[in-house]
C-alpha cells in the first residue's frame, strides 16, 4: 500500500491521475464548511480540474466544520495532506483520480474561534457550505429561521462564541466590516430550492437578532448565489476503502461517485470567483429551472422509492430499481404527477431527464444505500415533494401517487420492516415521526398533523387518498399497494 501524501504522489499507479500543479504554491481563497464526500467529489473536483489547467491557484480550499465529529475527518485529511482519491464507478468501467484543491482544514474548537479568524482573512473571498437540507434551521411552519432553536438562541446571545456555521460567518463578517476587509460571497451547495436565498435568509435573520446594523451591512454588501448541484456520491465504508486499497492506495477517506456531474450557478459573486465554467460548470440566470428539474425528479424521486424499498428490505438504490413493482411505481409517479410541474432546460426535457435518472439510479456499481437516502425525510419530503402536492392540488391534477409516497414514508417510520426487522432511528425527528406513524395505523390523521404538512392535513383531496393507501399498505402489504397504483 502507498500511503497517500504529497511525497508519494509520484509513486501512485500510472493509471491513477494526480495533481500536476505545485500544491505548495497554492493560496487559499475558499473556506468550505461541511467537508463531506459530496463536496470532495463535486465542487472540489471542479476546482482541481481548473488547477490542472494552470488556473485558479489562488482559490484553494480550506476545509472546516462546526461539530465535534468533524475533528475525526480533519485528522484523517491532515494525515494525507488533504488529498482525496476519487473513484468513478460506471457499468462500463472505473477510473481513479487524486485531487489536491484542498490545502488546509481549520481546527475544530468550541466557540469556533479559528474558523472565524480564517473567514475574516481578506484572502478568503468565498465561504461555501454543504450542511444538508436540514442544516439551515428552517421553521417548518413559516419557512423562516427557527429562532427558538437552542443553537440559534445561543448564537444570538453569544455572537463571539457561536455554535453554528451561520453564527461563525456573521462573526467573521463583523470583523471584515470593522477592519475594512470587505464582504465575502456565501455559497450554499446544498439541495435546497433557492439555496442561496435560504442561506441569505438564515444569515440575515440570525444577524438581525443581535445586531441590526451588521445585518444591514451584510445584506447590502454580501452576495448569496443560487446553485444547482448534482452527483450521486455514496458514503464511505468498508467497500470504498477496499476499492482504494485495490488500487494500491492507502486513503483513509476515499470517495466513490458516478460518471455524472452537473453544477449550475448564478454569476453573483461580490469578491470574485474561479472560472468554474472552464471545468464544465454552467453559469446561468435560470438556475431555478435547473434546480426545480433536479430537486423534483432526482431528489424527489429518491424519496419516492426509498421508503417502499426500506419497508421491503432492499438495501441499495440499484436493487430498488431492479424491483419490478417499485420501478413501475417510480415511473408512473414521475411521469404523470411530477413531470407536469417541471420546465425543460436547455438541452433537456423533463421526460429525458427522468430517463437519465432511471439509468443513474440503476447503476449497480454505485453502492448507495436506501438508508442513507432515506435519512432526514422530515427535511426532504417538505423540500422535494410537498410543494408539488400543493401545486397539483391548485392545478386540479392527480396526487394519487404522491399520496402513496407519503403513506409509504409513514409506514417506514413505524420502525419495523415487513420482514420483522427493526429500522434504526434515521431522522432528527425520529421519535416524533415514529409516534405519529404508530398512531396513524388507527388514525391516519395523526401523521398528517405533523407540522410540515400544514393545511394539507385538512384537505380531503389529499387526506383521503393518503388514508386509503396507508390502510392498504398495513392490510395487504407494500407491494400490493404499489402494484395497485401502477396498474
Automatic annotation (TrEMBL):
<dbReference type="InterPro" id="IPR008927">
    <property type="entry name" value="6-PGluconate_DH-like_C_sf"/>
</dbReference>
<keyword id="KW-0560">Oxidoreductase</keyword>
<dbReference type="InterPro" id="IPR013118">
    <property type="entry name" value="Mannitol_DH_C"/>
</dbReference>
<feature type="domain" description="Mannitol dehydrogenase C-terminal">
    <location>
        <begin position="286"/>
        <end position="468"/>
    </location>
</feature>
<dbReference type="InterPro" id="IPR000669">
    <property type="entry name" value="Mannitol_DH"/>
</dbReference>
<protein>
    <submittedName>
        <fullName>Mannitol 2-dehydrogenase</fullName>
    </submittedName>
</protein>
<dbReference type="GO" id="GO:0016616">
    <property type="term" value="F:oxidoreductase activity, acting on the CH-OH group of donors, NAD or NADP as acceptor"/>
</dbReference>
<dbReference type="InterPro" id="IPR013328">
    <property type="entry name" value="6PGD_dom2"/>
</dbReference>
<dbReference type="InterPro" id="IPR050988">
    <property type="entry name" value="Mannitol_DH/Oxidoreductase"/>
</dbReference>
<dbReference type="InterPro" id="IPR036291">
    <property type="entry name" value="NAD(P)-bd_dom_sf"/>
</dbReference>
<dbReference type="Pfam" id="PF08125">
    <property type="entry name" value="Mannitol_dh_C"/>
</dbReference>
<dbReference type="Pfam" id="PF01232">
    <property type="entry name" value="Mannitol_dh"/>
</dbReference>
<feature type="domain" description="Mannitol dehydrogenase N-terminal">
    <location>
        <begin position="29"/>
        <end position="278"/>
    </location>
</feature>
<dbReference type="InterPro" id="IPR013131">
    <property type="entry name" value="Mannitol_DH_N"/>
</dbReference>
Amino acid at each position: 500500500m502507498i500511503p497517500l501524501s504529497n511525497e508519494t504522489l509520484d509513486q501512485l499507479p500510472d493509471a491513477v491521475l494526480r495533481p500536476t500543479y505545485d500544491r505548495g504554491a497554492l493560496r487559499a481563497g475558499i473556506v468550505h464548511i461541511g467537508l463531506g464526500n459530496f463536496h470532495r467529489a463535486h465542487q472540489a473536483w471542479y476546482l482541481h480540474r481548473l488547477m490542472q489547467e494552470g488556473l485558479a491557484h489562488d482559490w484553494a480550499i480550506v476545509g472546516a466544520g462546526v461539530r465535534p465529529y468533524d475533528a475525526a475527518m480533519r485528522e484523517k485529511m491532515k494525515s494525507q495532506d488533504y488529498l482525496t482519491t476519487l473513484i468513478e464507478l460506471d457499468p462500463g468501467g472505473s477510473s481513479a483520480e487524486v485531487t489536491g484543491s484542498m490545502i488546509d482544514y481549520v481546527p475544530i474548537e468550541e466557540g469556533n474561534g479559528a474558523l472565524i479568524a480564517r473567514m475574516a482573512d481578506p484572502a478568503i473571498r468565498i465561504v461555501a457550505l454543504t450542511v444538508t437540507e436540514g442544516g439551515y434551521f428552517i421553521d417548518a411552519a413559516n419557512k423562516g429561521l427557527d429562532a427558538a432553536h437552542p443553537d440559534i438562541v445561543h448564537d444570538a446571545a453569544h455572537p463571539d462564541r457561536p455554535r453554528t456555521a451561520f453564527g461563525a460567518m456573521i462573526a467573521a463578517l463583523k470583523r471584515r466590516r470593522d477592519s475594512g476587509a470587505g464582504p465575502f460571497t456565501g455559497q450554499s451547495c446544498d439541495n435546497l430550492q433557492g439555496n442561496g436565498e435560504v442561506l441569505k435568509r438564515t444569515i440575515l435573520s440570525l444577524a438581525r437578532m443581535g445586531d441590526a446594523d451588521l445585518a444591514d451591512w451584510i445584506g447590502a454588501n454580501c452576495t448569496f448565489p443560487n446553485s444547482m448541484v448534482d452527483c450521486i456520491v455514496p458514503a464511505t465504508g468498508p467497500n470504498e476503502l477496499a476499492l482504494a486499497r485495490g488500487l494500491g492506495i492507502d486513503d483513509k477517506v476515499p470517495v466513490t461517485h458516478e460518471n455524472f456531474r452537473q453544477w449550475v450557478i448564478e454569476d453573483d459573486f461580490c469578491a470574485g470567483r474561479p472560472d468554474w465554467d472552464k471545468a464544465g460548470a454552467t453559469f446561468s440566470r435560470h438556475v431555478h429551472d435547473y434546480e426545480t428539474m433536479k430537486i423534483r425528479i432526482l431528489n424527489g424521486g429518491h424519496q419516492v422509492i426509498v421508503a417502499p424499498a426500506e419497508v421491503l428490505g432492499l438495501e441499495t438504490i440499484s436493487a430498488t430499481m431492479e424491483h419490478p413493482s417499485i420501478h413501475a411505481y417510480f415511473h408512473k409517479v414521475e411521469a404523470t404527477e411530477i413531470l407536469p410541474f417541471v420546465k425543460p432546460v436547455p438541452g433537456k426535457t423533463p421526460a429525458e431527464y427522468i430517463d437519465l435518472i432511471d439509468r443513474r439510479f440503476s447503476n449497480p456499481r454505485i453502492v448507495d444505500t436506501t438508508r442513507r437516502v432515506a435519512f432526514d425525510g422530515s427535511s426532504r419530503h417538505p423540500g422535494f415533494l410537498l410543494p408539488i402536492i400543493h401545486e397539483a392540488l391548485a392545478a386540479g391534477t392527480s396526487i394519487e401517487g404522491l399520496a402513496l409516497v407519503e403513506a409509504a414514508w409513514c409506514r417506514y417510520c413505524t420502525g419495523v420492516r415487513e420482514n420483522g426487522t427493526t429500522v434504526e432511528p434515521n431522522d432528527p425527528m425520529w421519535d416524533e415521526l415514529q409516534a405519529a406513524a404508530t398512531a396513524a395505523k388507527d388514525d391516519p390523521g395523526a401523521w398528517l398533523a405533523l407540522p410540515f404538512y400544514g393545511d394539507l392535513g385538512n384537505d380531503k383531496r389529499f387526506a383521503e387518498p393518503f388514508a386509503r393507501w396507508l390502510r392498504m399498505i398495513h392490510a395487504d402489504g407494500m407491494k400490493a399497494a404499489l402494484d395497485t397504483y401502477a396498474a
